[in-house]
Amino acid sequence: QVQLVESGGGLVQAGGSLRLSCAASGRTSSTYAMSWFRQVPGKERDFVAGITWASGTTSYANSVKGRFTISRNNALKTIYLRMNSLKPEDTAVYYCAARKGGNWSRTDYWGQGTQVTVSS
């Protein structure tokens, strides 16, 4: 099993920045990549960004390209999501996820989520 704990959410004004963190523990050696997803009430959980542990290959949703940056610290088994130029439509619960293989839409483990609210 892998446990994921997110932190760093909060309330920010439009145009501001936040950094989310996700610490992984347990059998992290079984995981290939980590991702961030987000969800608003009544809608599906959407992929935001992802990064592989070994090579650091990244992927981003079109809606966040150029504004969000995902990074990793392999020694700490922690990933980060730096969110700049935040917009009200970025408001959501952000979830950290880990996967053992497959593509960016696959997830094997989820964190509990952290709320991000962007005020206009």
Chain-wise SSE layout:
Layout: E1 2-7, E2 10-13, E3 18-26, E4 33-39, E5 46-52, E6 58-60, E7 68-73, E8 78-83, E9 92-99, E10 109-110, E11 114-119
Protein traits:
0% helix; 7-stranded mixed β-sheet; 120 residues; mainly beta; 4-stranded antiparallel β-sheet
Kindly estimate the percentage of residues that lie in beta strands according to DSSP.
over 45%
- Global shape: globular
The residue fraction in helices comes out at under 10%
The description of the largest β-sheet is: 7 strands, mixed
Structural class: mainly beta
Residue stretches low in confidence (pLDDT < 50, at least 5 long) are none
Distance between the termini: 40 Å
**Tally of alpha and pi helices:** 0
**What is the N-to-C succession of helices and strands?**
EEEEEEEEEEE
Per DSSP E runs of 2 or more residues, the count of β-strands stands at: 11
- Kindly provide the radius of gyration, computed on alpha-carbon positions and rounded to a whole number of angstroms: 13 Å
**Integer average pLDDT:** 96
Structure description:
With about 120 residues, the protein is an all-beta fold. Helices cover about 0% and strands about 55% of the residues. The chain has no helices and 11 strands. The strands form 2 sheets. Strands 2, 4, 5, 6, 9, 10 and 11 form a 7-stranded mixed β-sheet that branches. It has a 4-stranded antiparallel β-sheet with strand order 1-3-8-7, with no helix packed on it. The chain is globular, with a radius of gyration of 13 Å. The mean pLDDT is about 95.
